[in-house]
């Protein structure tokens, strides 16, 4: 069991960023995800695992059958600045996506992206292993929310494919922006997980351009209709009783 962390610079910067934007301007699900990951990093709840216990790797999931890593690895961060940059990015993307989808569908999307980016990460590890015969690819362990963030960015760019984004003072068509960022981060940040970021882009495309994403939307929409229908029936019965 790990000890609770002290408040660090990245957490202070994150708090300042939220106060600057105004917490009331951040949708509830997005704000909740930021709060949850901050609490996990601070170990407020004294979680019964360490970072090494939940980092995602092909060996850990396939050979050891440690399936909790498919989800928990995304919510752990290596240090305070890792958390800060990811949460600032989450706020930016979450404010847009949650506004489009609503909080319920947005949370369903986050769960889908979390699980599938982990699965794609494992698949990419095996592909690289079969190409290079480098067994270390199967044991590389990764943590963080960046794969999910790359998936979110990909989804947003597919919603506005003709828009342009400025990256390093270069105007890039939105549809190509995730790929451009993938290369830039790979070149500038050697320790960043290339497979993780690539898996995020691929999962984002899976959601927007394949029947898997359409099927997810259909199921979530039907569930929301059932919930809304039951709520309306309950309200009708209460009105009759009154």
From TrEMBL:
Record's signal peptide: 1-23
GO BP: proteolysis
InterPro entries, per database record: Peptidase_S54_rhomboid_dom, Rhomboid-like_sf
GO MF annotations, alphabetized: serine-type endopeptidase activity
Keywords: Hydrolase, Membrane, Protease, Signal, Transmembrane, Transmembrane helix
One Gene Ontology term, aspect cellular component: membrane
Species lineage: Eukaryota, Metazoa, Ecdysozoa, Arthropoda, Hexapoda
Domain Peptidase S54 rhomboid: 66-208
Spans traversing the lipid bilayer: 106-131, 137-156, 168-189
Pfam family, one: Rhomboid
Full protein name: Rhomboid-related protein 4-like
Topology of the protein relative to the lipid bilayer: Multi-pass membrane protein
Subcellular localization, as worded in the UniProt entry: Membrane
Family indicated by similarity: Belongs to the peptidase S54 family.
Gene3D superfamilies assigned to the protein according to its UniProt record, in alphabetical order: Rhomboid-like
């Amino acid at each position: 069991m790990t000890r609770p962390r002290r408040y660090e610079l990245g957490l202070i910067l994150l708090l300042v960023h939220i106060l600057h934007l105004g917490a009331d301007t951040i949708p509830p699900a997005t704000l909740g995800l930021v709060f949850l990951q901050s609490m996990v990093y601070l170990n407020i709840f004294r979680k019964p695992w360490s970072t090494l216990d939940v980092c995602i790797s092909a060996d850990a999931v396939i050979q050891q059958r440690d399936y909790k890593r498919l989800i928990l690895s995304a919510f752990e961060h290596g240090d305070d600045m890792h958390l800060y940059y990811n949460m600032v990015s989450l706020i930016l993307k979450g404010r847009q996506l949650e506004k489009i989808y609503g909080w319920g569908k947005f949370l369903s999307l986050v769960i889908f992206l979390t699980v599938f980016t982990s699965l794609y990460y494992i698949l990419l590890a095996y592909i690289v292993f079969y190409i290079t015969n480098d067994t270390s690819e199967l044991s590389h362990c990764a943590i963080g929310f960046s794969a999910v963030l790359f998936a979110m960015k990909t989804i947003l760019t597919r919603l506005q494919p003709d828009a342009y984004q400025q990256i390093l003072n270069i105007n890039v068509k939105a549809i190509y922006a995730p790929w451009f960022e993938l290369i830039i981060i790979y070149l500038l940040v050697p320790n960043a997980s290339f497979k993780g970021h690539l898996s995020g882009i691929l999962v984002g495309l899976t959601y927007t351009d394949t029947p898997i994403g359409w099927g997810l939307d259909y199921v979530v929409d039907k569930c929301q209709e059932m919930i809304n229908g039951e709520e309306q029936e309950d309200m009708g019965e209460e009105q009759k009783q009154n």
